Amino acid sequence: MEKSKVLIIGGTGYIGKRLVKASLSLGHETYLLKRPENSLDIDKLQLLMSFKEQGAKLVRASLDDHESLVNALKQVDVVISAVAGVPHRGHYILQQLKLIDAIKEAGNIKRFLPSEFGTDVARMEHVSGPGKEMWHDKIAVRKAIEEAKIPFTYISSNCFAGYMLAGLCQFPAIEPHMDSVVLYGDGNVKGESYEMQSGVNHYYHVWFEGCLTNFEIEENGVEACQLYPEIKYTTAHEYLKRYL
Ligand SMILES: NC(=O)c1ccc[n+]([C@@H]2O[C@H](COP(=O)([O-])OP(=O)(O)OC[C@H]3O[C@@H](n4cnc5c(N)ncnc54)[C@H](OP(=O)(O)O)[C@@H]3O)[C@@H](O)[C@H]2O)c1
């Protein structure tokens, strides 16, 4: 496999730390953005140090410091961003517009993977209501990447099984309720908090409306099982058995 020099932004996050582990284990030269704030958080700092011990290179830079960002980008050829985008845990998706400006200036980046890893936002343009800003901001980032003609890959996992399937849509549960489930009301019941409302809105569009499944694969599209035949897929049934 051809090896790349990969810069990961948001490398101590939920998705980010898994990306770092994967990049290191595949033998890519792995660079991690070390933000000034990381030096103030003992868990993040220790995680960064352990990645360094495993071979990652830490690059001091910040999305708010254009020059530091351009310098970081000049050392690599692939950039993967995993900045936060879950409303209740911080939402920095639009900060990536600064990254796009820096990629344009650096001029050497062969591929950019923005912070996605969720629903395919191209199928969610019509979505309104609580939580819509996450999808709309990701759409704005895609638009900026494409306008800047930066080579990109968008990874849409279309509802991480860990968060969505296992909870059986019993927001905010992330493991199955074994005794009973609540069937949501007639569409007029008000959610209590914004977090609750955006979670339920997510479920509505994905599970009830089916915006990620009720479409035909386009002419140039390929179904994932055909694209990656070497992967052993897990059925929902097999997946849920682990909770028994
Ligand atoms: N969590 C999920 O269940 C889930 C599911 C589907 C999709 N996603 C998507 O995956 C992506 C990453 O989400 P996540 O849950 O992994 O995020 P997260 O763990 O909450 O945070 C990721 C990273 O965001 C960075 N960050 C925080 N504040 C920042 C700031 N002021 N400026 C720049 N970066 C900042 C931090 O990077 P440092 O490492 O530098 O501190 C942090 O580690 C998002 O697009 C999200 O929508 C998440």
UniProtKB/TrEMBL annotation:
Cross-referenced Gene3D superfamilies: NAD(P)-binding Rossmann-like Domain (3.40.50.720), UDP-galactose 4-epimerase, domain 1 (3.90.25.10)
Domain NmrA-like span(s) in chain numbering: 2-175
EC number annotated for this UniProt entry: 1.23.1.1, 1.23.1.2
PANTHER family, sorted: NMRA-LIKE DOMAIN-CONTAINING PROTEIN, PINORESINOL REDUCTASE-RELATED
Similarity comment: family membership: Belongs to the NmrA-type oxidoreductase family. Isoflavone reductase subfamily.
Subunit details: Dimer.
Record's protein name: (+)-lariciresinol reductase
Species this protein is from: Stylosanthes scabra
